[in-house]
Amino acid sequence: MNLIRVIAENWVQLLWFLGYVVIAAVLGLVCSWIASKIIARLSRRSRWIAEGAFYKHCKWPIRWFLIAFFVRLLVAGVQIPDEIEGFISHLLSILIIAFASWLVIKLTYVLQESVFEQFQVDVEDNLQARKIHTQLNVLKRIVTVIVFVLALGMILMTFERVRQLGTTILASAGIIGIVVGMAAQKTIGTFIAGLQIAFTQPIRVDDVVIVENEWGRIEEITLTYVVVRIWDLRRLVVPITYFIEKPFQNWTRVTADILGTVYIYADYTLPIEEVRKELERILKGSELWDQKVCVLQVTNATERTVEVRALMSADDASKAWSLRCEVREKLIEFIQKNYPDALPKVRAELEGREKSGRK
């Protein structure tokens, strides 16, 4: 009722106030439009900023921030009742903090998109690009969390009761810090592990890894977990601390090229040199071979068979897998057609009946 009475008694001042709000909003829209055009033109001329990234990500945060800023600036000099002025000033302060935080977060998206455009991962030699993608993905999430927490704290501190409560809390901050630290050990450890992953980079986006005996590629790295895309399109979600605390295989840590092996088990009569020549012919005719390694060796011999290992190289793990399958199929086919007697067999001599006939 008091608010209604205040409005009824000061309706002329309130109308002036609303007029100032409309003028400030229009001024904010015009300034945001001018700013967006200037930024768009600068981004088109700059080779470091992705074209259209500023306009796409920052258009609305800049627009709403300027509107709130000009409204707060112009209405400061309007004479309105203290009850309404306090409420509006508080609301505008909250909006300015929120829109400014939104703008800062969106600027990280502009940075990420601009850098990603400079460093593409869909090229053959993408080691440096994958390093930068991994760092930016983690850092973007860290910045988002930090800005959100700071903005929330600043908004809460605009409330008088919360500010008074904060003074009391700070008086016992030591005890609370110890309790929170003990309760959030895993959370803090996970956060630190995320920072370690970002800077030391034992894994990167699109790395080929063996985790929990599963072959896959790193698809996503967050502050708390890592998503591994398994070869059969399953997703293995692993805590990020796993890659700090446990051993795993990273097939693309330094380079993507890798050696592949194929094992053939055959009879002792298999002509090794002919198989070696056939391996060379198969690899030279394959687009998957990188023309670096081509080796055929007898790596073991048992009482029944010999173990022949074919060693070959490829540009990455996917090509190496396909090349291994191709070589294995063609070597088996070669032995079947040309040396069928060299396939594994069991030998036995029957002498019992012959000896009994002599007797």
Kindly describe this structure.
The strands form 2 sheets. Strands 4-3-2-1-5 form a 5-stranded antiparallel sheet. The protein has a 3-stranded antiparallel sheet with strand order 6-8-7, with helices on one face. It is built from 12 helices and 8 strands. It folds into 3 domains: 2-118, no CATH class; 139-254, SH3 type barrels (Roll), CATH 2.30.30.60; 258-342, Alpha-Beta Plaits, CATH 3.30.70. It is an alpha+beta fold. Helix 2 (11-45) packs antiparallel against helix 3, helix 4 packs antiparallel against helix 5 and helix 10 crosses helix 11. The model has no long low-confidence stretch (mean pLDDT 81). A hairpin with a 2-residue loop joins strand 1 and strand 2.
Keyphrases for this structure?
3 domains, five-stranded antiparallel sheet, alpha+beta, SH3 type barrels, single chain, 359 residues
Alpha-carbon distance between the two ends: 129 Å
Shape: elongated
Sheet with most strands: strand arrangement: 4-3-2-1-5
- Could you state the oligomeric state of the chains shown? single chain
Strand content: 15-25%
| String of helices and strands | HHHHHHHHEEEEHEEHEEHH
- How much helicity do the residues have? 55-70%
Largest sheet: 5 strands, antiparallel
Number of helices: 12
Q: Pairing-aware structural class of the strands and helices?
A: alpha+beta
Mean pLDDT score, rounded? 81
Uncertain residue segments: none
Number of domain units: 3
Radius of gyration based on Cα positions:
35 Å
Number of DSSP-assigned strands: 8
